[in-house]
From TrEMBL:
GO terms for biological process: xylan biosynthetic process. This is GDSL/SGNH-like Acyl-Esterase family found in Pmr5 and Cas1p. Keywords: Membrane, Transmembrane, Transmembrane helix. PANTHER family: N-ACETYLNEURAMINATE 9-O-ACETYLTRANSFERASE (PTHR13533), PROTEIN ALTERED XYLOGLUCAN 9 (PTHR13533:SF31). The keyword Transmembrane applies. The chain crosses the membrane at residues 33-54. One of its GO terms (molecular function) is acetyltransferase activity. Its main location: membrane. Signal peptide: none annotated. It is found in: Membrane. GO terms for cellular component: Golgi apparatus; membrane.
Length: 341
């Protein structure tokens, strides 16, 4: 398409030279002037209208010949939380997970947070994880992401000391991680009321979760629900202008045939697991039901990975806790953007 300036020059040339050519064919002067006027008006209008007409034609032609892909609409950050667990698994030869390719998940732009990005996201943060062995395995997944293999190998024995707390500071990134052994729900409530509430600064991120010990040694879903309700009350008793980002680590899928004692096989049934899940929902401690804690659904993740991912029917391979960790990190990205806004 010619630019308007060149079109104007072309029009002027036509107005000047065409009448001269017609004069050479011995037309009368009156007819030549009349023809020149009509021609001038027509070309004047064409010069001004052509750019718009040609642009529209060009866009229409381009849209037909080279249709651009229609991107998924971007979702507001708060709308993305429900889709964090939309995960697909490939089980052979080794279990691998990825977020599925559905429209809402694609629009949210979830990604696997790298070591570098995790260090930036968590820079200067205090992360507190309280719970049972499942919570300890989540801490291990976090350390695997943040630390090099040599550093990790030197600290794993301390992390997995039986029924013990664990503390580490990653000085060059200002990250502090505390794991507190809290196998029963009352341990978590005591932690919140007696140790967290009185301190001047709360953790930036808190992950809470228990239930396996309760299921094995108490085996009473109603009692479990009451205990979780007290955790919720303790969370609401925290008073701070900026509360921690808080997560609830759900119970895993239980594979009865792999549980290693008769007592576990008798008490830790799928029926009991369902009952405990209903009690958590009833307490409304989870964000999806209006509560304060975002669910890390280990049951769904472990079910997706399958029975091949567990040796003892309740503790799963690292890939499951890595998935839970990445869900947590992406939730932190979402919530951080919300707070910025």
């Amino acid at each position: 398409m010619l630019p308007p300036a060149q079109l104007a020059i072309l029009a002027a040339s036509v107005v000047l030279f065409v009448p001269m050519g017609l004069a050479g064919w011995h037309l009368s002067r009156t007819k030549m002037l009349f023809f020149s006027g009509i021609l001038f008006i027509f070309l004047f209008a064409a010069v001004h209208v052509a750019p718009y007409f040609l642009s529209a034609s060009h866009l229409l032609l381009a849209s037909v010949l080279f249709p651009s892909p229609r991107p998924y609409p971007l979702l507001p950050p708060s709308s993305c939380l429900p889709f964090l667990h939309r995960i697909s698994w490939t089980r052979a030869p080794d279990p691998v997970w990825s977020w599925d390719r559905s429209a809402p998940v694609h629009s949210c732009g979830f990604q696997c947070i790298s070591n570098r990005d995790a260090s930036i996201l968590l820079n200067g943060s205090w992360i507190l994880v309280a719970g049972d062995s499942q919570a300890r395995l989540l801490v291990l997944a976090l350390l695997r992401l943040l630390l090099d293999p040599a550093s990790l190998a030197s600290i794993e024995p301390d992390l997995f000391k039986r029924h013990s707390d664990y503390h580490i500071a990653i000085a060059d990134r200002g990250i502090k991680i505390d794991f507190l052994w809290a196998p029963y729900e009352r341990n978590i409530t005591d932690l919140l009321v007696r140790e967290i509430q009185p301190v001047p600064r709360y953790p930036d991120v808190m992950v809470l979760g228990s239930g396996l010990w309760h299921m094995l040694h108490v085996t009473n879903s109603s009692h479990y629900g009451e205990s979780v309700s007290r955790i919720k009350e303790a969370v609401f008793s925290l008073h701070s202008p900026v509360l921690p980002h808080m997560f609830w680590l759900g119970l895993p899928t239980l594979i009865k045939s792999k549980l290693n004692t008769d007592e576990k096989r008798e008490r830790m049934s799928n029926a009991m697991l369902e009952a405990y899940g209903r009690e958590v929902a009833r307490t409304k401690i989870l964000r999806q039901s209006g509560g304060p804690l975002v669910l890390l659904d280990v049951r769904l993740l472990s079910q997706g990975c399958g029975a091949q991912c567990t040796d003892d029917g309740m503790h799963y391979d690292g890939v499951v806790y890595n998935a839970a960790l990445q869900i947590m990190l992406n939730a932190l990205v979402i919530e951080s953007e919300q707070r910025i806004e």
